[in-house]
Amino acid sequence: MTEDSKPPLTRIQQKNRDIILEAALTVFSTRGLRGATIDRIADAAGLSKPNVLYYFGSKDEIYRTLLTALLDTWLAPMLNIDSNGQPMDEVLGYVAAKLQLSRDYPRESRLFAYEVLQGAPHLEGILGGRLRDLVENTVAVLERWMAQGRLKPVEPHHLIFSIWALTQHYADFDVQVRAVLGPGHDPYAEAELYLENLFRQMLEP
Fold first, then answer.
1. How far is it, in rounded angstroms, from Cα 169 to Cα 123?
2. Number of domains the chain contains
């Protein structure tokens, strides 16, 4: 039976599958792929090992499922950049959306960082294909805005890299950020104001 021909999951089956993925996300984001086991995922999910294996054939299958869903979430803000919009608004909106993802999905960010640090064996085709194509499309939009004098000229690939680095840092190094800032700070609220000012000064003609 192929994946497409499988009968739809019941409500309980979908709930159990979601529970497994949620538990696996915690295990993978703290222990990485090598340190994760089906037993640990089952314990975190509050299910038996056979129950987990009923829904997923291996920890690699769970890992790939999480990464695929993560990539869809990660790429959405770039897909939402409007080539007919106001350039500064679109860039600053993208920065804000990426920072919001770091706030809302810190485990996913750390999981993605772990995968890339390992050489991205599960994402190699996607990084050099789908992601690269999306980045090149965005670069073309940025270059057009810069040529029109609507944004200050900078190297667009590295502009995108800097946005990724400066937003995902707050998820990947959350403990460090909070330790340095100390109590009484909201890292994300402060970062939003700082990054808006930074990129506005960098790109405003």
1. 21
2. 2
